[in-house]
Amino acid sequence: MAGLLEIHDKDGHHHKLKLKKSEVPFICGGCKELGFGLRYQCPNMNCNYILHEECGFGLEYRRPPTQKFFKRCDFQFHQQNPLPGTRICDICALDIQGFLYQCSHGDYDLHPHCASLPLTISLPDSKKVIKLCEKIKSRCLKCQRKERATGKVQGFSYVSSDGNLCYHVACLKEACLDNWKKGYFQLDVPANEEIKILALQNLAPNQVVRPSEGKSSKAMKGINLLITFLKLVVSAILGEPFTLVSTVFQISQN
Predict the structure, then answer these.
(1) Residue 40: what are its φ and ψ, rounded to 5°?
(2) Which of 10, 108, 148, 219 is the one with CA 20 to 30 A from 190?
């Protein structure tokens, strides 16, 4: 998605917001969700108003840039839920607390960033791909369940083409938020090997992610594939991981 260099939130903020590269994780002032990467930020040094790039796009154009999941829906942008009651994102199955896209019939709701998730992600040096799916046969690496549902909303998952690796979008968002709160994603804290291991184990608690001497080449290949999978889905769901997140995954090179 090609971002505008500057937008103006006329309803919620008085200053024009400029597109910048984020050096730290942030909580979006629009959708209230964790973000990495490009963001719209107020140039006033005393103001901490920040928006996801996708939330800024919604403010400017009022429609998602590309909507691939619910073809028969006409999605419109809202800064707050226009309908009574709590709304659940149909992609991640988590509560919507701020900006959203809503189907004109009121049937479906999406977080702005969830509306822009890629349908497929290519695994480097491999013919395999990772696909965004609604129905899955594998168990999630985080929660060990096949389904992640809230009420009538099933939620989507990223799954490797061989079906061996699977992650609910909701579980990854929650795990990364937890890692951030625990201080694993901080520029001013060196990412030593133990922090890397703890961050990875939080993402995939039932998987062996600690390389050690004596492991077979097949075992190391499996660890590297798992870490590559996690890195790609983190990037897809939360934004470009930049240095502070990428260093967590450098354990695969050790």
Answers:
(1) -95, 130
(2) 219
- Amino acid, res. 221: K
Per-residue DSSP letter, 140: P
Residues 6+ apart with CB under 8 A from 150: 88, 93, 94, 95
Of 146, 150, 175, 180, residue with least CA distance to 163: 146
Residues written for the chain: 254
The residue whose two tokens read 């822009």 is: 116
Distances (CA, A) of 123 to 12, 34, 233, 242, 250: 40, 25, 11, 18, 16
Q: Are 91 and 114 in contact (CB under 8 A)?
A: yes
Which residue type is seen at 67?
Q
Render each residue's pLDDT in the chain as its tens digit; 254 residues.
445 677 666 555 556 788 887 767 788 888 998 887 788 888 777 778 888 888 888 887 777 766 677 877 888 899 888 887 888 999 999 999 999 999 887 788 999 988 888 888 887 766 778 999 888 888 888 888 888 777 777 889 999 888 888 889 999 888 888 887 887 766 555 556 777 778 777 888 877 666 555 566 676 677 778 888 888 888 887 776 555 556 666 654 44
d(CA 96, CA 31): 7
Q: Is the model's pTM score more than 0.90?
A: no
**7 SS3 class:** strand
